[in-house]
Design goal:
Number of helices: 6
Strand content: 15-25%
Distance between the termini: 12 Å
Structural class: alpha/beta
Radius of gyration: 14 Å
Largest sheet: 6 strands, mixed
Shape: globular
Number of strands: 6
């Protein structure tokens, strides 16, 4: 049975990375959609406010048990104001069953490793020490990150 990738992407960067990983591993890709405005001035303002306040509706997401039977799973989202994007955090608040082999992916504009966002995401997912992958938007858009992705896959065992 293939793994599962649960992905929220606002601008398409995180989705591009998740599609690449799904293609390389044969994993099922499940999208977590936010609804509401997309990229642009209004979208950034609305989602920035929601990221800070935690307000906003439930995301359109796969069922809570989407990864329950998978031997491994990856949770992926962009970083919003220092935190993993709200739609993925909201999905995790449902306490979905996740496999023991779990990896975390965050994308951002900054080359700085978002340790606090990874820590929060791990706490929400119920893991303290999971393989982590952080790539910048520029790296993903240019098709880079081969070494980082390979190291992440090796750490995850896929």
């Amino acid at each position: 049975m293939p793994g599962a990738i649960l992905c929220h992407s606002f601008t398409g960067t995180t989705l591009t990375l998740c599609e690449r990983l799904a293609g390389e591993t044969g994993a099922a890709l499940h999208r977590i959609e936010a609804g509401g405005p997309g990229p642009g001035a209004i979208g950034y303002a609305v989602w920035g406010f929601r990221a800070v306040t935690g307000l906003g509706g439930a995301p359109e997401a796969p069922p809570a048990d989407a990864a329950a039977e998978a031997p491994w799973a990856v949770l992926a989202a962009p970083v919003w104001i220092g935190r993993a994007a709200l739609p993925l955090r909201r999905w995790l608040e449902r306490a979905p069953p996740l496999p023991d082999r779990l990896g975390l992916i965050l994308t951002s504009d900054s080359p700085r490793h978002p340790d606090p966002a990874f820590t929060e995401l791990g706490r929400l997912a119920g893991v303290e020490d999971a393989p982590r992958l952080h790539l910048t938007r520029k790296t993903v858009e240019t098709g880079g990150g081969d070494a980082e992705i390979a190291a992440f896959r090796e750490a995850l065992g896929v």
